[in-house]
Amino acid sequence: MDLYYDKDIKESYDLIDELASNKNLEMVASVYDCNSAKVAEGYCSALKIASTNITNFPLIECICKHCNHLVIDTGNATNSDIENVLKFVKKISLNMRILLQYSPTRPPMSSSTWNMWRIQEMQEKFKTPVGLSDHDNTTNQALLSLGLGVLNIEKGIMSDRAWNKGVSDSAHCIPISKLDDYLSTIITARNGLQFNPDFLHNADHAKKTRSGLYAKTDIEAGSVIIKEDLVSLIPEMGVKANEIYNVVGLRIINKIQKGDPLDRKNIRNY
């Protein structure tokens, strides 16, 4: 959310803080003056610098005194702007955690203007985590950004009443009644992108879906295995199908009935 200092709006901060807590979300605020930064410090896990203030070093210095985690909206900033602000923040606050926020174009601009590749370019060039300021009226920008490795996604929300009236920013915000659906879609996609090595290398699962070697006909004890004696079938119960040329020419120890899997323990010298 955006915060401008007003001594009478602490109640609003409390309401937003309660909403964030109920949704298991952390609160982050864009602040535009030092007093706002001081108030937001008690509620937010991070403070955000709007893209319009990316060169406002006096304000940035003040904001850095009230947070340990800083979000920098890059907006239309040049690489030089980003480099300069990163150097400045690191100079005045060595332990500051910094997140760069990428902001694509908003409706009615088409998806061809989003330049989502910029996320990866920023990650590589500035060696800093990058998030997304989602300005689309669907989940498309958010889903694309997840695949590009963003650390967070910012999404504008407003009351259903304001959204239905089409007030300013409604084109790229969502009504609060749709927040659960939005979060569910994002969380599902994020979970699908997580790497699960245990599932990937599950040997038992692999055996159930891969081919093994079976006796195509009865094979007598002491017989030399020939290719024509074998057939590959699912599931893999003994020798793998890709080992066929390793076992051809070797001898069977005990007779194998037609249809039985080829057992490596029943192959001499294998």
Mind explaining what this structure looks like?
- By secondary structure, this protein is α/β, with parallel strands linked by helices.
- The chain has two domains: 196 residues, TIM Barrel (Alpha-Beta Barrel); 61 residues, Antifreeze-like/N-acetylneuraminic acid synthase C-terminal domain (Type Iii Antifreeze Protein Isoform Hplc 12, Alpha-Beta Complex).
- 35% of the residues lie in helices and 15% in strands.
- The protein has a seven-stranded parallel β-sheet.
- Helix 6 links the parallel strand 6 and strand 7.
- Helix 6 packs parallel to helix 8.
- It is elongated.
- The termini are far apart.
- The model has no long low-confidence stretch (mean pLDDT 89).
Q: Which terms summarize this structure?
A:
2 domains; Type Iii Antifreeze Protein Isoform Hplc 12; 11 helices; 270 residues; TIM Barrel
